[in-house]
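Before our next group meeting I need something from you. Please put the record directly below this note.
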Amino acid sequence: MTDLDLIDRKIVAELMRDATLPVAQIADKVGLSQTPCWKRIQKLEAAGVLTGRVALADPARLGFGLTVFMGIEAPDHSAEWRETFAKAVAALPSVMEVYRMAGEMDYLLRVAVPDMAAFDMLYKRLTDAVPIKNVTSHFAMERMKFTTAYPVDTRNR
């Protein structure tokens, strides 16, 4: 289902904007009746296009006022190291995202913690759990733009 038609893309865009919308409102916005709209949503979920519905929260209001981007350089690229690393980051709830990268760093992590002391504890837990060649941490001073919605084309067929 990689070739989504215009209606499917509109449905996805509406749900990314606000997943709490009732099906009737989504259907109205995309030009369908409720039942066909609901069936399309179910197909999009079954195909893995829609992977979940969540509430977005303000990290600072939840006590996670420090965002850190960690660049990780692996000491080797063996399957064993990758598996150990994957388990280590999975066990750290403050690690919000992990990407395997091309270029100078091997992995990029987005971390949300209350403060520097909490980051230091996370850093120690990670470096105790898995050997790492180099860690470069970048501390966000201000979040200037944030979205989880991809810029889906909702105009062109």
